[in-house]
Design a protein that fits this description.
Elements lengths: L3 H8 L9 E6 L4 H11 L7 E10 L4 E10 L2 H4 L4 H6 L4 E7 L14 E5 L2 E11 L2 H10 L10 H10 L5 H11 L2 E9 L2 E6 L8 E6 L5 E6 L3 H5 L3 E5 L4 E6 H6 L3 E4 L7 E4 L1 H6 L5 E2 L2 E2 H15 L10 E5 L5 H13 L4 E3 L3 E3 L14 H9 E3 L1 H4 L3 E6 L6 H11 L5 E6 L28 H8 L3 E4 L2 H7 L6 E4 L1 H4 L18
Parallel strand pairs: 14-24, 17-18, 17-21, 21-22, 22-23
Antiparallel strand pairs: 1-4, 1-10, 2-3, 2-4, 5-6, 6-7, 7-8, 8-12, 9-10, 9-11, 12-13, 15-16, 19-20
């Protein structure tokens, strides 16, 4: 018998694992409920656990206090009791987090947001990303007497802020961020402000929106993806810039002015995570200020330009996406393939189950194939006797791809081609994505696309090249991309070995 968490792990075993989602809300009478819906919209970024913290004024104690609810599982499971929003999570400001663990084991203690009471008041924090100097910072703090309650690098931010002798929250946060190196998008709630920040290279995304209230006033929301804004009718304002700390406070509610500060004095060229466009983000989101859907369609078009699939016997080739991340890329591929004189038809040939229940695997069953069959089924009448082109976002280990192709073969296609909208993945990520080690990556075991094609069972396989990928993504002034998983070129130095369990005793 498998619980929901185990099933999700099985389904995602051959994908780049989603990183976390964060949300912050300020100035809304139902801040926790807004955070809840925003986390629900961002469920794809983390399914291990979810949490929300709120700040409220305690009339009895005559001071600000925090309340929180955290738990393992999906957002709908953690916040299934509506009384949480009327009796526990009260107040007009909130921060929330969906967790997928990249550093720190999957234990209840590691569920965010983290809360603390310290010399400057109270604070709640949620983090998306990975630090690259966690071990050295952690050991230094332990030597100074700090006691850690979790194994995540996110807790480091709390201790660094608390250790600061600076007078204001802003100064304390800025000092902490100058010490912590790596990739991070942060939301931090204090007694009278909501702070949000992105690391100097802006690896992970973070956007700002506002929600119209009565009397022409606005509440403000910050979230990893803009799809969180749509569900709560928030207006997108802009992205938090790389190397930027923003502050939203009561003055912002009155004037509409969002305060902005630099983390370090000289802003470097941004190195946005290119995989946000390829796979992580929902197509209905804006990431780094640009539409994911438009970029993903363009990825499909450029892939067709670089590696078209000719039709045979005057029959259309059927372009079939692996749902759901490759849907829009497959549309772009089908359109451009047809424009080049190869009639193509976009088809839904794989049906994905979005409902996960109990599964039982009998002894001797092919577990890999069974798991794929639990997640996908083929439209046999569509595939049979056709030349099908499977469009997917990436291949990591190759195990699930192999099982998926085996499933498609059972529908008796004439031929199976495969097109991947990213280059081969050859290196792990240390900035908030849970890629496996180099040794586990299929692209490091074979020297050519033909060899990989044979290994996973397709007749023809092509990846998008790095050069074409870089032509596809949008550019603004001072903006570039991290492509370390494809090129081994890490823009932020990796100061120490990093693994999910690197902080375990």
């Amino acid at each position: 018998m498998y619980n929901k968490k185990v099933l999700i792990e099985m389904f995602l075993e051959d994908k780049a694992r989603p990183n976390c989602a964060v949300v912050g809300v300020y100035g809304h009478p139902q801040a926790a409920l807004i955070a809840y819906y925003a986390l629900h919209a961002q469920q794809h970024r983390g399914q291990e656990a979810s949490g929300i913290s709120t700040f409220y004024y305690d009339e009895t104690k005559k001071k600000m206090r925090y309340a929180y609810t955290r738990g393992e599982g999906l957002v709908l499971d953690v916040f299934s009791d509506s009384k949480i929003f009327t009796e526990v999570l009260i107040g007009s400001s909130a921060v929330g987090h969906n967790r997928y663990s990249t550093t720190g084991s999957s234990t209840r203690a590691n569920i965010q947001p983290f809360n603390m009471t310290y010399h400057s008041g109270i604070l709640s924090l949620a983090h998306n990303g990975n630090l690259t100097n966690t071990k050295s910072l952690r050991n230094k703090l332990i030597d100074e007497g700090t006691i850690f309650q979790t194994t995540t690098d996110s807790e480091l931010f709390m201790h660094l802020i608390a250790h600061s002798r600076k007078k204001t929250h802003l100064e304390q946060i800025r000092e902490a961020l100058q010490i912590a190196h790596g990739a991070y998008s942060l939301v931090i709630l204090t007694e009278n402000s909501l702070f949000a920040a992105r690391d100097p290279h802006g690896v992970r995304p973070l956007s700002i929106g506002r929600i119209k209230l009565e009397n022409n006033r606005y509440a403000y929301i910050v979230a990893s993806e803009t799809c969180a804004f749509d569900i709560v009718n928030a207006e997108y304002i802009r992205s938090v810039a790389h190397n930027e700390i923003i502050e939203i406070d009561n003055e912002t509610l009155e004037t509409g002015k969002i305060k902005s500060y630099k983390i370090i004095d000289e802003t470097p060229i941004a190195k946005h995570c290119i995989f946000e466009y390829i796979y992580f983000s929902r197509p209905d989101s804006k990431i780094f200020g640009h539409s994911v859907d438009k970029v993903r369609r363009k990825l499909g078009k450029y892939l067709a330009l670089e590696s078209p699939v000719p039709n045979e016997d005057d029959e259309k080739v059927f372009i079939i996406p692996v749902p759901d991340s490759a849907n829009t890329a497959a549309l772009g591929f089908a359109k451009k393939n047809s424009e080049q004189g190869f009639p193509s038809s976009f088809e839904i040939g794989l049906i994905r189950s979005h409902y996960v229940g109990r599964t039982f695997i009998a002894p001797g069953q092919d577990n890999r194939v069974f798991r794929v069959k639990t997640k996908f089924n083929t439209v046999r009448g569509l595939i049979e006797g056709r030349h099908v082109v499977i469009v997917d976002d990436s291949i990591v280990r190759g195990t699930t791809s192999k099982a998926l192709i085996k499933l498609i073969r059972e529908a008796n296609p004439k031929k199976i081609s495969m097109r991947i909208i990213s280059p081969p993945i050859v290196s792990p990520c240390f900035y908030g994505m849970d890629f496996p080690s180099k040794e586990e990556l299929i692209a490091n075991h074979y020297s050519s696309e033909q060899e990989i094609a044979k290994a996973i069972g397709v007749d023809d396989l092509k990846y998008l090249s790095v050069s074409k990928l870089m032509e596809t993504v949008p550019y603004d002034d001072g903006i570039d991309y991290c492509t370390a998983c494809f090129t081994c070129n890490y823009p932020i130095p990796i100061e120490e070995e990093i693994s999910k369990d690197s902080n375990e005793n």
